[in-house]
Design a protein that fits this description.
Elements: E1 6-12, H1 16-25, E2 27-29, E3 34-39, H2 43-49, H3 61-65, E4 74-85, E5 92-99, H4 102-110, H5 112-124, E6 129-133, E7 138-144, E8 147-154, H6 162-176
Antiparallel strand pairs: 1-5, 1-6, 2-3, 3-4, 4-5, 6-7, 7-8
């Protein structure tokens, strides 16, 4: 099986319709919860459109141009949308926006524009936390309670022993890092 990277957004369940409206404002959603989102162009998106993540890149200008809107934004999709309620949190849901292909998963990991778009979405939805789940490669938290952040935890260890010592790591970092001194 290929890669299935997802942006995951934890938010208030009362904001679900606002989420769909925001996505429609920036693209489209079909009836099967497959979104096509229009992102600002960056070099990673151009590489993706050229097939640069695949084993056989193509440079067919006509084919690439079908994915670029007149305003210069790129149509990227299908991005699968699913929503699950978070157990024990009556008013919270986790929204999954999952790449349809392995190449799109790599694009999710690399693209500055896509990362920026998800940060803006997180602000609009008053997200509690937003992160990209890169499966065995790790996770990258990009947004937390109103603030953009960049915290990456690499590899499978984020699922194992790291969970036990995570707060100890941050406590030790906090007490030693001069930036946090008052």
């Amino acid at each position: 099986m290929g890669l299935d990277y997802s942006f995951k957004i934890v938010m208030n369940k009362n904001e679900k319709e606002d989420l769909y409206e925001y996505i429609r404002k920036h693209g489209s959603i079909d009836y099967g919860n497959c979104a096509c989102i229009h992102f600002d162009m960056d070099s990673f998106i151009l590489k993706y459109l050229e097939g640069g993540y695949g084993w056989n890149p193509h440079y067919n200008k006509l084919e690439i141009s079908t994915h670029i809107k007149p305003d210069g934004k790129a149509r990227i999709g299908c991005i699968y949308i699913s929503i699950t309620e978070i157990e024990g949190q009556n008013d919270e849901v986790e929204v999954f926006l999952t790449a349809a292909t392995s190449d799109m998963s790599l694009l999710f990991r690399d693209s500055v524009s896509i990362n920026r778009w998800f940060i803006e979405l997180s602000k609009e939805m008053n997200s509690i936390i937003t992160y990209i789940d890169m499966e065995d490669e790790g996770v990258k938290i990009i947004y937390f309670k109103g603030s953009q952040i960049d915290l990456e935890i690499k590899g499978k260890q984020h699922l194992g022993d790291l969970r036990k010592i995570f707060f100890d790591i941050f406590k030790e970092f906090y007490v030693r890092y001069k930036h946090f001194e008052e």
